[in-house]
């Protein structure tokens, strides 16, 4: 494999522990299989750019793992899953995930990964604004789609009763109202500066 996957499960687990996550070996093995499928499919389906193959673990997998300390047992609705980040990684780590992706070829790839890795998840070929309605209090994630304020506007039609959003931001100033920003995510194991923004939207009726 060309990408930067750790040499062993122990190394991967140590890196995830720096993010507050105790990665299970079975999850690690599923992630390895996922990355193998992604590497083989990337060129044919334009899933990720050539430069990203060499940093799939440090840039994409670990940034996805960084969402886990902010999750509980609720269903996660991942917006713009793309090649699988963070939605497929969260699913491979045992979370109940609904992935929303507007591009059909990427949905087909995600479905292949789910079958190959033996995970149960929902993959919706849709835009988020057309995918609802989702129940009140739904939790949405998004990693690299749009800024927080734009994401809130996209999600509102799908979850008019109120929702929460977890998204990665690059600077602490990149906020909207009703948010909490995490401490800076550690470098290493990540390869760039980042934070997790937590936003809660409540629908208050007069």
Folded structure, characterized:
- This protein is an alpha/beta fold.
- The chain has a single domain (9-202), classed as Vaccinia Virus protein VP39 (Rossmann fold), CATH 3.40.50.
- It contains seven helices and seven strands.
- It has helices spanning 9-17, 25-45, 56-65, 87-92, 104-117, 128-131, 148-155; strands at 76-79, 97-101, 122-125, 138-142, 162-169, 179-181, 195-202.
- Strands 3-2-1-4-5-7-6 form a seven-stranded mixed beta sheet, sandwiched between helices.
- Strand 1, helix 4 and strand 2 (97-101) form a beta-alpha-beta unit.
- Helix 2 (25-45) runs antiparallel to helix 5.
- The longest helix is centred in the first third of the chain and has 21 residues, at 25-45.
- The protein is globular.
- The N and C termini lie far apart (57 Å).
- The side-by-side strand order for the widest beta sheet comes to 3-2-1-4-5-7-6
The backbone outline, from C-alpha atoms, is: globular
Write the H/E string, N to C: HHHEHEHEHEHEEE
Give the strand tally: 7
Low-confidence stretches: none
If you compute it from the alpha carbons, what radius of gyration comes out, rounded to the nearest whole angstrom? 16 Å
Quaternary structure classification: single chain
Q: At the third CATH level, what is the topology name?
A: Rossmann fold
Protein structure class: alpha/beta
The percent of residues in helical segments reads 25-40%
* H/I helix tally: 7
* CATH-assigned homologous superfamily: Vaccinia Virus protein VP39
Mean pLDDT: 91
Distance between the termini: 57 Å
